Amino acid sequence: MERINNLNWFLTMKNNEHIGVWVTKDGYIRHEFLPNGRYDEARGDIKSAYTGYYNRLGNHVEYLDDTGFVAEGDFKDGVFYHAGMVLYKESA
What pTM does this model have? Predict the structure, then answer.
């Protein structure tokens, strides 16, 4: 996974509807996609439990966590499925 994003990719992501906070129904996991290609995942009271880079390819997302593990997820019908979790976009 490429860690440095080019300008076109950045502009595409900045205007992307997937940017923002995605939350499990119980609110325990809060996963934020940032427009700079980074993500920040909070779990319960632990802020930034996981952070790293992501790359979105259509409805598919690939992650490279700062600790080195990789993961993936998929958007389908306005829901984000990631590592067995189901997340919904938080409204403003």
Answer: 0.80
